[in-house]
Design goal:
The protein has a single domain, classed as CDP-alcohol phosphotransferase transmembrane (TM) domain (Four Helix Bundle (Hemerythrin (Met), subunit A)), CATH 1.20.120.1760. Helices cover 68% and strands 0% of the residues. It is globular and about 50 Å long. It has 11 helices and no strands. The N terminus and C terminus are likely disordered. The N and C termini lie far apart (42 Å). The longest helix is centred in the middle third of the chain and has 28 residues. By secondary structure, it is mainly alpha-helical.
């Protein structure tokens, strides 16, 4: 069909009846200035150490694309799986729990890939995913603390360190996505409540946005203040901080469980990982550049 060919009214009506959600998503996405993309980082191709499970997640998402499974249901699944892993740790089933945490990481990527496959990004899903991950992290760390006999101060220190390490990786990931016209559901500065997409309710977005601000905004601001503008392409910052991401850390945790050296966890998180955190921050600070697209910063 040529660019100037008129579509008969009957055929146009059929198209809208057969694919109403897809057409609405594309229309609203373009009208609201949202790029419709199937890639997390858009045109950028960074070396992400924690993104190894995404090809698997993409296959699962394509399988679920036309199924009656919502993105929120997938998020709820990996949330419940994390709580189950915490229970397994309390039962001293360390290896099984850590292996399931790796599976959880893949499932965690499925919800985002499913939203991209359906071209239906969700602000509610973005905020709830962060809240669910944090609740799961707290449950896992308290379970480890109970079994490994950490005192409360060490447990809280582990949780706080991991939260900041995740926030650093997320910070560079979001900025790289913005520069490559990738996924724009997440923003570096979340102070302003986003407008709900046509397929979600503004009230729900406002509720989850408020929860996000109360629990996580302070982390975002501290990380932004520490990192500055960063290098021109953020490749070193993204790759180094991706070592702190859940995808790689879950594998390291599993290796420690297999060799029965989970007592090394505090050294890993508070020592090695904090050193990686410091390197990424210092590199970003010492290589400040204004060349990157900072429209969302």
């Amino acid at each position: 069909m040529g660019a100037g060919t008129l579509i008969p009214t009957e055929e146009l009506s059929t198209l809208y009846r057969e694919q109403p959600q897809r057409l609405l998503a594309k229309s609203c996405g373009h009208q609201m200035g949202l790029p419709v993309t199937s890639k997390k980082y858009g045109a950028n191709k960074p070396f992400d150490l924690s993104d190894w499970g995404r090809p698997i997640a993409r296959v699962v998402a394509l399988f679920l694309k036309d199924k009656r499974v919502s993105v929120i249901q997938v998020t709820n699944l990996h949330f419940l799986l994390t709580l189950f892993c915490a229970w397994l740790i309390l039962q001293d089933q360390m290896v099984v729990a850590c292996l399931l945490l790796i599976v959880k990481g893949v499932v965690d990527a499925v919800d985002g890939e499913l939203a991209r496959a359906r071209e239906r990004p969700s602000h509610v899903g973005r905020f709830w995913d962060t809240v669910a991950d944090t609740i799961g992290l707290i449950a896992i760390m308290f379970a480890f603390g109970k079994v490994l006999e950490w005192d409360l101060l060490l447990t809280f220190g582990m949780i706080l360190a991991i939260l900041f390490q995740y926030s650093l990786f997320n910070h560079f990931s979001i900025r790289l996505r913005a520069s490559g016209s990738g996924d724009t559901t997440s923003r570096v500065d979340e102070r302003q409540c986003p407008l709900a997409h046509p397929w979600e309710k503004q009230r729900n977005v406002q509720i989850f946005h408020t929860i996000y601000l109360l629990c996580f905004y302070w982390q975002d601001r501290i990380v932004s203040a520490l990192t500055g503008r960063g290098s021109k392409h953020l490749k070193v910052e993204l790759t180094s901080s991706s070592a702190l991401g859940y995808g790689l850390q879950s594998i390291v945790f599993t290796c420690l469980a297999v060799i029965e050296r989970l007592d090394f966890l505090p050294t890993l998180v508070l020592g090695i990982n904090n050193a990686i955190f410091a390197f990424a921050v210092l590199y970003s600070r010492l290589n400040n550049s204004s060349s990157l697209n900072d429209s969302n910063v």
